[in-house]
Design goal:
Layout lengths: L2 H38 L2 H6 L2 E2 L4 E2 L2 H32 L4 H14 L2 H18 L14 H4 L7
Antiparallel strand pairs: 1-2
Helix pairs in contact: 3-4
């Protein structure tokens, strides 16, 4: 093996060991902090209690159900669109517009989804800010603009 390959191999190996170590450290830290809840038998109470932080109730059940509902809605919207795009690119119009659409889809996959998240939340928060009536569809208070705006940033 070449000396450059040996150096790069050792750098990548040490980076992977470091990454695994950090992951194990964070997991251990979370387990240690969760031990009081697990010892008192409050784990299932935490899952089944409602989310009412103003009353000191921090149940995770509504968040888990909401996450599953949002993931299902995203799947219902994205699956037909992706199937239609792949059908159009591969079968209906592979040379003309399909070639352009294929390049656009390939460029979209080059951008990590971590980038799409903050940008889309910022766009949604601006929508809820300018149209406050739309927030009533999602919550009882001022809508999602109050929760999305402080956590959003632009690059």
């Amino acid at each position: 093996m070449d000396i450059k390959e040996t150096i790069l191999k050792s750098i990548f190996f040490s980076a992977s060991v470091f990454s695994a170590g950090i992951t194990l450290f964070i997991s251990g830290f979370m387990i240690v902090l969760a031990l009081p809840i697990l010892k008192q038998g409050l784990f299932f109470d935490m899952l089944t209690s409602p989310w009412a932080p103003d009353h000191g109730l921090f149940g995770l059940g509504p968040m888990i159900v909401g996450t599953i509902c949002i993931a299902f809605m995203a799947l219902v919207i994205s699956f037909p669109i992706s199937l239609g795009c792949s059908f159009f690119i591969g079968i209906l119009n592979p040379k003309g517009l399909g070639k352009w659409l294929k390049k656009m889809v390939e460029s979209m996959t080059a951008i990590p989804t971590v980038i799409y998240g903050p940008q889309s939340s910022m766009d949604l928060s601006e929508f809820f800010f300018w149209f406050p009536w739309s927030g009533n569809c999602f919550s009882k208070d001022q809508g999602c603009a109050s929760c999305l705006r402080p956590s959003c940033f632009r690059f």
